[in-house]
Write a structure and sequence with these properties.
The complex is a heterodimer of chains A (281) and B (91). Chain A has 281 residues and is an alpha+beta fold. Chain A has helices at 2-33, 36-69, 72-109, 270-280, and strands at residues 118-125, 134-137, 150-153, 157-166, 169-174, 181-186, 191-199, 202-208, 218-220, 228-236, 243-249, 259-263. In chain A, 41% of the residues lie in helices and 28% in strands. Chain B is mainly α. Classes of the chains: A alpha+beta (281), B mainly alpha (91).
Chain lengths: 281, 91
Amino acid sequence: MTSNFRHDRQRQQQRQKFIGYGLLFVLLFIIFRAPIARVLSSSLFTVFRPIAVLQNSAQAWWSDMGTLLTSKELLALENKRLKDALDGITLEAYSHQELREENEQLKAMLGRASGRTFVLARVLANPGRSPYDTLLLDAGSDDGVAMGMKVFVDGDFVIGEVERVVARGALVTLYSSYGKELPVSIGSSSVPALAKGEGGGNFRIGLPKDIPVFPGDLVRVPALAPEYLAIVAAVDHPDGSSLEDVYLTWPFNIYTLTHVYIATDLAATDDAKLLSDLSRE
Amino acid sequence: MKNIPHRIFFDSALLLSVFVAPFPVTIILGVLGLFSYPRYGEAVIAAVVVELLYRGKGSDVLGSHLLLAVWVLLALFIIEMLRTVVRERTR
């Protein structure tokens, strides 16, 4: 009798536990589907921003301290190496700049000037801090940033799009996010292809075997102004397959990125602008 | 049972790690918390904070569309069930 009573009580407790977890499960879905998610997200960003700024400043100070402790001999060697590298890059930059201006002039003559304007933004959180391929930036709707705007790094590499905007911050989803697809052109003959995000700044493209693609080739995003997605890191020719796997990567480290440029005149759609305005309200 | 100040300190570390530490650190602290404290719902809260702060539309976690918070809730449920089973067996 006592044993039965105890079993009943245990069963009741189990049932209550199941109901509790079920309710929690439903609550989670409600939180993420309802507009409250945007309010919570915005509030969290307000808390996160000063912490991230403080952390970045502390890291910069620590890095400077490390430089002070490095020996003079090592610093002199590094200085010489950097000067040599800078000389080479400066020479290339002259011709690059001239070609770029000529390109812009020709486009303007044909009535297709790209005329981009950028907003500089500091990276508050890199992908390493989150399980997603996203960046948190310190520029938001107060700086003219809207949803759908493209995000660039030096060298005209486009890395992602603004997906969420708050007053003083923005969330950028990188093109390398797992499952993302982007139309590109690849190789010397500009073969159209679809680059698939593999996470962590890596992409993969499947191409017919006879298309000549080599490591180091630039992968372009079809646009008026020069936009590059990545460079070819490796090409794999599986035995017996009519396709080749082309692996792409960014020529910079996304985990140590400190600044990016947001192209403010490239908002994706009017709907995106409207949503951004609503979120600002 | 661990004392409450100890748990509060651990919770603070877990939540702070969401803002300042790499994600694996948060995962390790979350797993430690789930195994060290009874009904460690704070891990679900940390997962919700991660989702709200860092997740974009259609972003995946470990190749899955499912919310990270749901995975953590499932882990909490399984660990609690295991705890109950072990407690009853050893009684």
